[in-house]
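Justification of resources, computational component.

The compute hours requested in this renewal are based largely on the per-chain cost of generating structure records like the one below. Each record pairs the submitted sequence with a full structure-token output. That output is archived, and it is also reused by downstream analysis tasks.
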Amino acid sequence: MKAEILKMLRESNDYVSGQQLCEKLGVSRTAVWKAINQLKEEGYQVEAVRNRGYHIVESPDIISREELVSMIDTEWAGQKIYYYNTTDSTNIRAKQLGEEGAPHGTLITAGQQSAGRGRRGRGWESPAGSSVYMSILLRPEIPPVKAPMLTLVMALSVVRSLMECTGLNVQIKWPNDIILNGKKLVGILTEMSTEIDYINHVVIGVGINVNMEYLPEEIRDKATSLRLETGHVIRRSEIIASTMKEFEKYYGLFIEDQNLESMREEYNTLLVNRGKEVRILGGKEEYNAVALGINEQGELLVRRKDGTEEAIFAGEVSVRGVYGYV
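The structure output for this chain reads:
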């Protein structure tokens, strides 16, 4: 009921009377009063005026299932939500729920992770109450070979969400990092369960450094947070809700085309190292090349020094800036 009350208060430009809430929710005035008081205790500033009703003045940076339900405005992305105060990893929870039959679009979020992971098994700093840790469970009817493109779909979705919520000039570092002022802000990890020619489910995990005021010394020169860049607190629920809306849109385009052609140009305009020299690491050799952008399959096109061009697959190599992280 708290989620429904929050949603009604947020959607109204005026006061919402207790009678309206009672009739909409089919509960007593006492039940509404108790729910309003619970919201106040959680930190929401709700103004109550006799003969007018209730009005939400300010929403704090709270992550809860009720908060997210009241914020998310989509058809399927994030319509089923699991929230944990603390969990090992939202990707681990999502994969478990996938095996148990959870529906397409299920969103898993947490206030803190004890075993957050990045690409290639690297750890991901996951302190409590300061960042976004979320995973979405998908059941796409596509060949398994096409699933890695979903990482790029999510990257584009997160960038557009952060631009909308903060106005910051965030960019993409192919294939799965979001960059702000030359430092890593977001990591994306895609995992899937497949048969030979069939996907059981795909899990895309997203970690966003939001309100961290301090970063460990070992990553301070190559990572940042929205709080450090803007100087103020950002509401994490707004970012999650916006990302779900953007992802639903771009996912629809991807499924329709079965490739990234419809969003390739948009993605390339946001590519931080497009037109710059990069270091290709892994595979059979290491070499420098100029990044040109992605193709419709999400591979990075690069030009070697001898003028030859080739496509780089994300699973085979890493790309680093020649003189730094990007």
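The radius of gyration is 21 Å. Residues 236-257 form the longest helix (22 residues).
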